[in-house]
Structure formats: C-alpha cells, structure tokens
C-alpha cells in the first residue's frame, strides 16, 4: 500500500510538472507591430488587431456576422504566435510557433482568412519574417532561411542553411541587402536574390536583430558586446563591452545608440556615441532590459522586466515613468501616433497605451 | 528557492558535463546515470522496506486479522499497528524514500527542459541560471562557448518532439516515445513485486500502474522535447539495472495472464 502511495504521488507530481510546462507550444513573450493606425499583437493563440488611437479591437465581417479580428479565422490546427507580424499591402505574414504544423501564414487583413500557407519548415517559427522586393526572407526554427514568393507562397530555390540551431530574429534591410544572424555568432548579408554578400563572425550568440542606420549596422551579443559594422562589407568599425547580456535591437536618434542589458535580474541602460562607441552615459535599473528601446522626439523610451516604462531625455535625465505592479515587460515599446503602446506580461492587460506625457489613454484586455 | 537549491545546481552540472563532452544527448544520459547512482541508496532502502511490508502482508498473522476484523476498521487499524511495532516495520518506510527522491527527479526534469531552451523566454531563464564561475573550471563552459547548446543528437533535435519520417509513410513514427512506453512498461512490470493475492487492493493498484505509467510517459514523450524522452529511457533502463543488481527483478511479471508461482502456491496451501 505504501509503495502504491509513493507511485501515485510520483505520477501526480510528474503529471502536474509536465502539464504546467506545456500545451501546444512553449510560450514566449508577445510581439507588437504598428502599421497605419493599427496595432498587431502576436500573443499566443491569436494575432489581435487593435486600433492604435482607441484600443478598440477591430472586427471583420464573417458568415456569422461581425467577429473580433483574432486572426486567422480559418487556421488548420493549433496556432501560437509570438513573432512580430510582417505587413505587405493587405497581407499579414507570420509563422506558427505551435509544436505541430510549422506553418507560415499569409493572412488577408480584409477578410481575416488565410491566403496561403507555407509548410516546408520542420520546427516551430520563432522569428518574424521580412519582405524585400516581393520576396519573403523567412528565418525558420529549423535553421533554414527560406525565400518565399509573397504573392503565391511558393518557395524560391533551395532553403539556405544558416545554422543547426533555431533562427530567432527578424531580418532587417537597408534597401539593398537583407541582414540576418544566427545563434552561432554569425551575421549574414544577402542580396534580394538570396545571394550571400558577406558574413561576419562576432564573439557570441546574437539574440536581437541589428539596427540599420545609414551605412552602419549596430548589433549586440549575448556576452554584452555592442558592435558597429559596415553595412556594405560587414567590417567591424568599433565595439564596446557593456555590463551584462544584450538581448535586443539597439535604437538611435541619429547621434547616439541606445541599448539595455540583462545583469542577472537587474539591468543597465546605455547611451553610446554612434561614431566612436564611447559610452555617453549609463543608468542602473532594478529590472532587466530585454525589449528594444524606442526613440521619439528626442526622448528615449525603454521598458524593464520590473514592469516599468521609463522615459529619459537623450542626456539621460528622467522625464516620467509608469509602473504596472507585478507586470513584466519583454516587448519593445511601440511609439506611434502620439502614443506609447506596451504589451505587458503577468498583467490583466494585453496592451496598455500612454500619451507622450505619461497619461494612460487606454488598455486592451482581449476579453 | 527550489531553483536555487535544486534546479540551478543541476543545470550547471549538466552544462559542465556538456562542456566537456560537447554532445547534449550524451550529457543527459551520463547525468541521468549519475543521478540514479547517487539516489541508489535511497532506492535500495525503499525496495528493502517495500519487501518487508510485502512479507508482512503475506504472513498468516496479517491475513488472520484482516479476516477477523474485516467489519471493524478501527480495531483492524489497531491490530495492524501492533503488528508493525512487533515486526519493526514502518508503514511509511517505503514511502519516505520516494518522497525524498521527488525533489531530485523534479529538479532534474526541470533542468533538462530549461537547458534545452527552445524559446527566448526559456533561454533567458537558462542564461540566468548559469553560475558566473563556471567558465573558471573550463573555458568551454563560458557563455559564448555554451550558448547555443547543440540540441542535435543521433537523428533527433532534443528540443523538439521526435518523429522518424519514412518516404512511403504519410506520417512520422514517434520511435523514441514508443521506446519510452516499452521501457516504462518493462520497468513497471519487472520491478513490481509478486503479490500473494492478485485480487487485493495492492495488486489491483500495481496492475493499474503497469498500464497507466507507460501510456502517460508515452504521451509526454510524444508531446514534449525529445531530450526528456532520452532521460525517461535512460532512467528506466538504469532503474531496471539497479533492481537486477539487487536480485529484485521479477521476470515472471512479463508473462501476460500468467499467475505467479507464489500465488499458485498460496492458493494451494490455503486449500491444504
């Protein structure tokens, strides 16, 4: 009997443990994208479509009448979205992070229906995709970069193997090349046809997409080095060793680079001279800084894992802050149409918006 | 607190092993064996206590009081306690070691899941758990050398559920999950003691366990990262090996619908 009690306890513990950890997909933090007055929120089972000014969820006509725009309406199987959506005309393109299917969807934003599905990947999608000259550059969880026709969803050529590991970051473009990195410390530049222009190896894993500014790329690594690279050749211009790990894309106001770091459960926020890599100023934060900062009208907006939105001047002087108790911010603040829009985790809100003076304007709960 | 005391030390030990071996699948296997060996004395104590309980429950004295006080639960409990005392057997002695093993097994499970880290959130948790001094032991354990952890092992991606796809089949075969199901069934059956009375509650429970556990772990292996399935298989095989080393493997349990010798003997003696 005692032996049985032990076994029953063992089963219950294992069941509880495992069930607590999973579902259709391993969870991650939400992603937001702003486009033409609309906020697209990738958060678990839904891609939400929300009006940026009012926080009201969009609706779309369906056979059953108007329905909240939680897209796509006609997904085949379980979906899970954490990647930032890519918009191209009426199309919304993003990959499925669920552990089955591994689809990349192109959704018609007018109908909410799937226009085409790309299903050649063999592992869930973590990264967002980039449309460059009608070609989708799609870095997949299976380590391949797929090139896909944006109109038809047809694969262009063979997949390009960039890593044995998952690709996690959305590609960026300077109009000529598309830049993408992997966790094997490498950053690549491809032309519009998918030909490799250059490849550069950095000191450790790269977890945040690079920032393209002028003829330079700015990219941080897990070991806390921030690099300035020549966008045309990949040659290093400068690097600076910061305290902690860099998880995000830097931001710029044209003269300085802004980036936050993770130091255990705390963080640091830096302003760095764009030309020389010299640190202008730095600021300790009680929470880690994982989301990318944003720059608007000379002010810098950044969020911390301690549930804080901090706004500072470009000289580092605090302007205002907003804190949501127990919330955690991992997603970059979205500054658009005179508002700063945030996607907290551990909160009743899926989205919360403040005006640029710090007054809360609306919240979105998704209920 | 659990992370601090159990999960993080396990993660770092696992990563240290990985930094020397360079293969995370092999690191999981070796670490599972080490953990099973470390917990072996606890398991041995549990087996011993279980056997003593089993012996007690098969004794004539025990059966007599079961029969005599079958309608008086209170008196039955008193008599049972008296026999426990007389024979020096504690009803909790086989249960306690299991409870002590739990934090270890749970911590080990969590450390594997966290180390595999298939999403940025999991990776963040992993990076935070790595001890700063780890790279002082070997440069291979520095953050830049450790991350990303190579999750490929044999034909699998340890961070994803495993399926083998054959050209002539429209679906994948979950080979690892099947092996988990089989080894769990074998372990449950082989380590299950022969019960004198196959109709008693204990035997029924064992029978249920023998079916339930393989199905449960098969389902988990089907759904979760294959690194976990590697852990389940290694743990099952080492567990069988440990029971075999103690001479406690009950091969007769593998034969379906066959009553064990003890049961037959027991019934014969009752008739006599």
Written description of the protein model:
The complex is a heterodimer of chains A (367) and B (272). By secondary structure, chain A is mainly β. Chain A has a domain of 126 residues: Lipocalin (Beta Barrel), CATH 2.40.128. Chain A contains one helix and 34 strands. Chain A has a four-stranded antiparallel β-sheet with strand order 1-2-3-6, with no helix packed on it. In chain A, strands 7-8-9-10 form a four-stranded antiparallel β-sheet, with no helix packed on it. The N and C termini of chain A lie far apart (48 Å). About 2% of the residues of chain A have low confidence. Chain B is an all-alpha fold. Chain B has one domain. Helix content of chain B is 69%, strand content 3%. The C terminus of chain B is likely disordered. At the A-B interface, α1 of A face α3, α6, α7 and α11 of B.
Radius of gyration of chain A: 21 Å
Distance between the termini of chain A: 48 Å
Number of helices of chain A: 1
Strand order of the largest sheet of chain B: 1-2
What percentage of the residues of chain B does DSSP assign to strands (E)? under 5%
Topology, number of strands of chain B: 4
Distance between the termini of chain B: 60 Å
**What spatial order of strands do you see in the largest sheet of chain A?**
1-2-3-6
| Main interface by residue count | A-B, 50 and 50 residues
Succession of helices and strands of chain B: HHHHHHHHHEEEEHHHH
* Shape designation of chain B: globular
Task: Indicate the CATH architecture of one domain in chain A.
Answer: Beta Barrel
Mean pLDDT of chain A: 92
Q: How would you classify the helix and strand content of chain A by structural class?
A: mainly beta
Helix content of chain A: under 10%
Shape descriptor of chain A reads globular
> Could you describe the largest sheet of chain A, including whether it forms a barrel?
4 strands, antiparallel
Report mean pLDDT of chain B, rounded to a whole number: 81
Main sheet overview of chain B: 2 strands, antiparallel
**Radius of gyration computed on alpha carbons of chain B:** 23 Å
The beta-strand count of chain A equals 34
